Amino acid sequence: MKYVLVTGGVVSGLGKGVTASSIGVLLKACGLRVTSIKIDPYLNTDAGTMSPFEHGEVFVLDDGGEVDLDLGNYERFLDIKLTRDNNITTGKIYQYVIDKERRGDYLGKTVQVVPHITDAIQEWIERVAMIPVDGKEGPADVCVIELGGTIGDIESMPFIEALGQFSYRVGPGNFCLVHVSLVPVLSVVGEQKTKPTQHSVKGLRSLGLMPNILACRSTTILEENVKQKLCQFCHVPEENIITLHDVSNIWHVPSLLRDQKAHVVISKVLNLGIINEPSMKEWTARAELCDRLNETVRIAMVGKYTGLSDSYLSVLKSLLDASVDCHKKLQVDWVPSSDLEDVTAKENPEAYKAAWDLLKEVDGILVPGGFGDRGVQGKILAAKYAREHKIPYLGICLGMQIAVIEFARSVLGMKDANSSEFDPDTKNPCVIFMPEGSKTHMGGTMRLGSRRTYFHVSDCKSAKLYDNKSYIDERHRHRYEVNPDMIEKFEDAGLSFIGKDESGQRMEIVELLDHPYFIGVQFHPEFKSRPGKPSPLFLGLIAAACGQLDDILLKKGVVMAANGLSNGNGNGSIPMKMHQNGNGNKMTSLSPREMAYSNGNGLIC
User: How buried is 376 (Cβ within 10 angstroms: 0-12 exposed, 13-18 middle, 19+ buried)?
Assistant: First the structure.
């Protein structure tokens, strides 16, 4: 196994995650298989209990791991599926070591940071690096490791020591250190300054790590004399000093690395021999297309964490993936949900008016997930406006639940309808606590990870956007769900629950069939969206917002028919089978295995 370690210096937020992901893209384009590990030095076991304002969004993996948002970057850039163990935290390591000590595994020895904590870190890295994440058998060729934080942080010291030992143990031909540092330009002087990077590298070397590559963040390309100065004082060859200057979108970063021959440098350090020239035509074309787009599609993001865009990072990336696919320039209008509420009209009428003016100007509305009752009434009002004015709407997790509550209040006349999360005493609990949840322990007690959803209605936008599959697998993160006892009332009034779990008791997808686009989902489709492969529901929202939905649904129907998955009516519906039950003939969806044996009309008897 070859290892590439990415560290950061001077300040946080330089883009280590994007750099690590881009290195992975470059190596993958050279024909290598790549996996990734993120090290977070905080004491939390995982990111699940951290506020989005504190650390950005919580990214959810297939296995239910609640991890750092940088793992979302790795999955999106590399199109891989990571595990919870690909995110290492101080909390996980200490818990692992303490559990071993309690079992007596250390045979009475005094348990210390060195060697026990540092050994545990190295063992964890070696074990996780061998897990295949790209759907193929066997381990990857290269593992890209990102160390969170900044060199010199106290909490990083055990990891720095462990990685120093690790680099010595695996040998110089198997370990490459890329140090991401800042080269600022002082407005008064107007020249690029190398001193911050010199100090950062000095600190790194004093801790036992020597950088092989310097990736310098700067507003502009590094000047030649600046490179020479860094080469002299940091002891890094000039050809190993790479500029990561500001770009119009982060999809350009892999091309920046390629153009400066970063893959050649990494190959030499890791003794990879002669590697293929990176093939990145599709990736580069997408980045350039994104820059050329000028026809705008406006989406209102109605949430409670609108002050920090990283709180909804995967949602934003999914919207971008879909808008580029529709050849539209994305404009996200942030609408604080609390500003839509009547109480704001009294306390801050300017903010109230600005929020509603913004909501009325957009092409589509998205209400993302969230927890707590702050701003919920504003989200309900946004869903009501979208429903009544035929504005394309996508509700995710809580966004689905508030759409159900709004429908109960406005259409069914249940004025006190609510979620038991917000009003435990409501007489009409549309959303209830899940029986297996916990109200005493917060971390890891939700319904998490990949779960299967079965479509119960084929003639709907959601099913068609998912290529008329009989079921889909999407990632979840919630502890409240729609009350199954009220489903009949909702469906009689026109709110269709077209997607359910295998038991039929958990509502996964809700849709207004007579609306241009009004869909709510209990899962989080944003976690599986990829550049070039946008999430179907985000694609549907953007397409509906810019008038392309009918064309996309027609195109999908044509593709399905061409693949032999039409029901013979030319509408690309799910293939059906006929069998006898106590009431006569019954039509049900074909399984994937049965699809292969359907007849020319898409029917199997």
Answer: buried
